Amino acid sequence: MDQNCEEVSVIKELLDKKLKKDVFADKVEKETFIECKVGNFIFFINLKDVYIILDFKPLVEIPGAPPHLLGLVYYQGEVIPILDLKSYLNQTLVQKTIDTRYVIIKAKDELLGIFVDESSKMISIPKPSIEPVDEELFSFKCKYQNDEIKILDVLKCYNVFKID
């Protein structure tokens, strides 16, 4: 009978360790991102910076606007400029498809839209795997499915494309 008690004790101890390990594993802080695609370039935008994602609709064109400003879209009384990042990302012409979206971001209390070929899913990345990078539109990068993915810095984007 003592051997059974000892075995039960060992099993309980192992289960306790397993439970503690699982609880600890779940406490790793994560950031949630929206995956976006412009041409063949995939990047993430932090979900906390995304105001809304809109389906493609015709834009109001602005005569004499810089090439990166595609036009304006109206959403719930807001006039939102829509930006084309393809030249900054060294991509060819962005094609309008059924998956085309406007990812509306909020920076400095202003809304900016980013024209993307696709914005298909949300991704959670453990904070420890996010690393700094210093590029014109990006401040962080991470590994996702064996690929290095850059994370858009909305403040840098705002400063580069600031529209007066």
UniProtKB/TrEMBL annotation:
Protein name: CheW-like domain-containing protein
Annotated Gene Ontology cellular component terms: cytosol
SUPFAM superfamilies found in the cross-reference section: CheW-like
InterPro entries: CheW, CheW-like_dom_sf, CheW-lke_dom
Gene3D superfamilies documented for this protein: CheA-289, Domain 4, SH3 Domains
Regions crossing the membrane: none
Superkingdom as given in the UniProt entry: Bacteria
GO process terms (BP): chemotaxis; signal transduction
Stretch forming the signal peptide: none
Span of domain CheW-like: 30-164
